[in-house]
């Protein structure tokens, strides 16, 4: 959701990796305590989520996304329809990625934001916040990252080359799968308990690890899941009913736009990490170096990795830091620690070099 080229910023840490077996280099890497301390101390004054940034950004992204989608559906000129569809996909992509922020911000930090996001984005896109909440935090757990218990990790760099295009292209089917889930499987699960269990365990989380099984929700979270599921099912059934009554073309266009959005996110996922761990528990520093920052002057990283996700490695150091503070945090930490620091070694020049590095890794994997 990084190829070594002329600018290979990972070179300083390649020797110990290459010298050790692939299954052990992570566990052999001690934590860089100076980096961890600096990251925490230098960002304390920018650690509060600001409603004046979150709300306008999310609302504007959703408005542009839906307006452009309506335009793509209504205009008769094919080129204009394609351009509006592209704009809609990019805007809705940004709006959807606020789900990542919802998993980290304190429940009292932005009053009403979770409900507002679900009503405006999550439920209409059939990706309510419960699909990420309680899942993504496991990816950040100290002893789970990169292991078989991590729902968001696969050792892609150690897999076969064909796994990368398959991984990316399967995302295109996500909108149809979500529609079937909410319109058919969830209602049927209400009267068929085994199906309900299966759907919850296997089709209720934004996870990429096929071994992941989600635990049953409890307490307040279970109540939130119930109402979000009801909202998604009502919306999905209404959309299908409207398509039967007035034609399928609008739905097909919308599915194409959301498929592009899902594909963009899957490509971003491919370069969010180096994916070089084969299941061993890792130190925090090893997790950081297995993750990726694509800071300026990288071009267009704000488009394919919006809402702060261009600083994904930094996010793994400071998971609760709001997205609007990551750029300043990166500037401060980089300036404080210097170019030769461990911190700098997680920065890469762009999307294409990252994809090339990952592809090369699969070609040399055993």
UniProtKB/TrEMBL annotation:
GO terms for cellular component: membrane. Keywords: Membrane, Transmembrane, Transmembrane helix. It holds the Pfam family FA_desaturase. The keyword Methyltransferase does not apply. InterPro entries: FA_desaturase_dom, Fatty_acid_desaturase. Residues 80-341 form the Fatty acid desaturase domain. One of its GO terms (molecular function) is oxidoreductase activity, acting on paired donors, with oxidation of a pair of donors resulting in the reduction of molecular oxygen to two molecules of water. The chain crosses the membrane at residues 53-75, 81-103, 115-132, 166-192. One of its GO terms (biological process) is lipid biosynthetic process. It comes from the Bacteria. The keyword Cell cycle does not apply. This is Fatty acid desaturase. It comes from Novosphingobium silvae. The lineage of its organism: Bacteria, Pseudomonadati, Pseudomonadota, Alphaproteobacteria, Sphingomonadales.
């Amino acid at each position: 959701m990084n190829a070594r080229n002329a600018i290979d910023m990972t070179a300083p840490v390649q020797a110990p990796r290459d010298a050790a077996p692939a299954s052990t280099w992570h566990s052999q890497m001690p934590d860089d305590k100076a980096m961890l301390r600096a990251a925490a101390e230098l960002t304390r004054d920018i650690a509060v989520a600001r409603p004046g940034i979150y709300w306008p950004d999310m609302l504007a992204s959703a408005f542009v996304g839906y307006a452009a989608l309506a335009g793509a559906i209504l205009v008769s000129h094919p080129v204009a329809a394609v351009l509006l569809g592209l704009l809609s996909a990019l805007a809705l992509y940004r709006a959807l990625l606020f789900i990542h922020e919802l998993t980290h911000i304190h429940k009292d930090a932005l009053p009403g934001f979770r409900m507002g996001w679900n009503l405006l984005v999550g439920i209409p896109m059939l990706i309510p916040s419960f699909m990420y909440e309680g899942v993504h935090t496991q990816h950040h757990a100290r002893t789970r990252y990169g292991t078989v218990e991590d729902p968001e990790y696969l050792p892609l760099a150690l897999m076969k080359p064909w796994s990368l295009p398959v991984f990316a292209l399967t995302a295109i089917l996500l909108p149809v799968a979500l529609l079937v889930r909410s319109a058919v499987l969830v209602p049927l699960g209400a009267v068929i308990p085994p199906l309900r269990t299966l759907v919850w365990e296997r089709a209720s989380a934004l996870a990429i690890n096929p071994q992941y099984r989600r635990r049953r929700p409890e307490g307040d979270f279970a109540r939130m899941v119930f109402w979000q599921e009801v909202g998604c099912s009502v919306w999905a059934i209404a959309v299908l009913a409207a398509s039967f009554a007035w034609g399928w073309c609008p739905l097909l266009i919308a599915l194409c736009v959301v498929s592009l959005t899902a594909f963009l996110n899957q490509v971003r996922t491919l370069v969010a990490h180096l994916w070089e761990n084969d299941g061993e528990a890792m130190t925090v520093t090893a997790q950081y170096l297995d993750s990726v920052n694509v800071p300026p002057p990288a071009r267009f990283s704000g488009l394919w990795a919006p809402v702060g996700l261009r600083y994904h490695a930094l996010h793994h150091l400071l998971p609760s830091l709001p997205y609007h503070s990551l750029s300043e945090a990166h500037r401060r930490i980089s300036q404080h620690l210097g170019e030769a620091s461990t911190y700098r070694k997680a920065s890469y020049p762009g999307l294409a070099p990252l994809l090339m590095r990952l592809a090369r890794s699969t070609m040399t994997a055993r």
